[in-house]
Amino acid sequence: MFTSPISDYSGPMSPRPVRIVAVSLFCPAGIGVMGLGTAVPGPVPGFDPIAFGVARKHIKTMTRAVQLGVAAVAAALVDAPDWQRVAPERRGLFVGASPQSGDAEDLASALAAAEGDPGKFARDGVPLIPPLWLVKGLSNNVLGYASAQHDFRGDNGNWCDGALGGANALAQAVHAVAERRVDLAVAGGADSLVGAESLIGGPCGEGAAFVVLMAGERGDPLATAGLPSDAGIEAGFGEMGAAAVPVAWARAWLARDPVDVGGVSGRRWS
Amino acid sequence: MRIAITAAAVTCAAGRSLVPPDRCWARPDADAQVLGIYGVARAEAADDARFPDDRKGALAASALAGLVPSAPGERDGRSGRAGRRAGGQDSGQDSGHDSARVGIFLGTGLSSLTPDELQADLYPHIERELGVGSARFDRDAMSRDLASDRPSPRRHQPERVTEVLGAQIGASVRETSFSACAAAAQSILQAARAVHRGDVDVAYAGGHDSMLHPIGYLSFVVLGALSPTVGRPFDRHRDGFMIGEGAAILRLQREQDLSRDDRVLAWIVGGGTSVDAYNVTHPHPEGLGAGLAMRRALRDAQLDPGDIDYVNAHGTGTPVGDRAECLAVHQVLGDVPVSSFKGAVGHTIAAAGAVELALCLGIFGSGLLPGTPGLEEIDPELPARVLRAPIPGRARHILSNSFGFGGQNCALILAAP
């Protein structure tokens, strides 16, 4: 799936090695659970975004997927050594996400007030629509909220490529550290496909996983991280959408296995 | 970094063109319309059988058709879609390149829920309750304007557009960025880096978006972001943006890969991104993130601030956004001429970075630095050197800004061919 190694980089500066220094994993088997299978459709049990520092006032403008993602970023940073010593301008955030939609829920009270009458919708319904209704639908909300929470101001990106989204985020984060655009990168994906609408298409899941990347040391091998080219990800993690590849990465990392899932390759971890 | 733009195609309110149209910035009376109470900058009709429910996708297909024709039978049979490349050659499949070395990088916008049961009845009643002056609201005009559109699908799949169009050009690498109004600019930067690194030999990069449907409107109305009059970036009386739609796609190649037949429209020599880390809907009041992106672009391009001859501003026309951008431009680049295209083409949201970068290509060699359509009276409190009308000037380097909800910022630097 990844087409070219970083060692092919032809930029003006030679790339540097990249290390994974911390990881978070939220999956249907639980939060940070090791050794359990994750091919279980359904929600992450016991998930409470407040427990991961997500501000209560922001939760109402976050979809479930965004809550998972923001919490997973925070969880990954808990284990990252001395990450606060990296200047905010040198911290990068790279996210795979799906299109979000909180619209139906947020329109419900307005529709109820309308009682089927368009005129009443305008008069009584529209004022009930939260002003940040649009904002809740932004796919880059994990990036927006998490960057504000942890003061990340550096290179960044948000990819909406289905299951490729998380893979793109991981690959671009590796490039950003290797090419010295940032010294710290948090990369991963979050998705939630457990709503009634999603379930129509069959068993679905949700999850989030983020890794913390930092520059490696001289002698570390260069990572393999070209750009993903194929969506053929058969990781067996239910329909986790943009979270599928990061979850696979994180799970393998927690088990200290070499990561080779769906073509995402890497053979050495610090 | 020195990446050649060898072709560009735009679909927006200023027209559909294979070469960057100059009328949107040289003529303040471009095709922007005011329909109803809100300004609308509608692109030329874009239909595509592959995207029957997705105007965003159809706009992107329309732009790409300007660069690469579809395979026979793949399209909707409409004539006149395939054209000539901006470089002046007959367009064709990207047959000169190994498909494994071709990439497509598109920025796209959000998917708005469009419940069918609301479509017909919702929009005409919005303005009354919002108290924005129903006497000025031309409901019939707006209804006519919107009636021709199919709504965006409930679960818009932006990656499908990239996948379908990627198949058209045989791309093996594809990326779909979503960073709100910075999406297209970030896609172009990612594509340029991929070409620079050697991940691909050719990249088709740009963006596409349309929020010109009732629920899209409602989204911005509820947020209070739309101008109830018309887009007037940097104006003393600016009051929001004029919504637009469009798509633009650029073809990017390395310098050493160019053939004698390739005509370079401009070079991408640098880019930078940042996050405000401040607020998902409001820019940093001092333009901190915007300035950071511009500084990074300068460093990436190995240029000094004085090397930038013109800034194509994000310039949406919101009171807070324009001020923050002007502060940042002044702080980073000093007294450089600045203007915005959005008064003519509208705010094309996720496509803005690509549409406006493509329009910037027309500046090189024109002998003009563009003005700001819609701008009547420059806000004297803005510290930047804002251009109301075009002025004579030669641009060697142009910096183009794009900023999005979520606090993501991107600055790109073009060099003259």
Give an overview in words.
The complex is a heterodimer of chains A (270) and B (417). Chain A is of the alpha/beta class. In chain A, 31% of the residues lie in helices and 17% in strands. Chain A has two domains: 6-101 and 139-266, Peroxisomal Thiolase, Chain A, domain 1 (3-Layer(aba) Sandwich); 102-136, no CATH class. In chain A, a hairpin with a 2-residue loop joins strand 7 and strand 8 (264-266). The two termini of chain A are 24 Å apart. Chain B is an alpha/beta fold. Chain B folds into two domains: 3-257, Thiolase/Chalcone synthase (Peroxisomal Thiolase, Chain A, domain 1, 3-Layer(aba) Sandwich); 270-415, 3-Layer(aba) Sandwich (Peroxisomal Thiolase, Chain A, domain 1), CATH 3.40.47.10. Chain B is 28% helix and 22% strand. Chain B has twelve helices and 16 strands. Chain B has helices spanning 23-26, 55-65, 116-122, 126-130, 139-147, 158-169, 183-197, 214-223, 288-301, 319-333, 342-345, 352-360, and strands at 3-12, 15-17, 33-35, 38-41, 102-108, 173-177, 202-210, 243-254, 266-275, 310-312, 337-339, 368-369, 385-386, 391-392, 397-403, 408-415. In chain B, strands 1, 2, 3, 4, 5, 6, 7, 8, 9, 10, 11, 13, 15 and 16 form a 14-stranded mixed beta sheet that branches. In chain B, helix 7 packs across helix 12 (352-360). Chain B is globular. Chains A and B meet through helix 3, helix 4, helix 5, helix 6 and strand 4 of A and helix 4, helix 6, strand 6, helix 7 and helix 8 of B.
Name its key features.
heterodimer; A: 270 residues; alpha/beta; Peroxisomal Thiolase, Chain A, domain 1; 2 domains; 6-stranded mixed beta sheet; two-stranded antiparallel sheet; 9 helices; 8 strands; elongated; disordered N terminus; B: 417 residues; two-stranded antiparallel ribbon; 12 helices; 22% strand
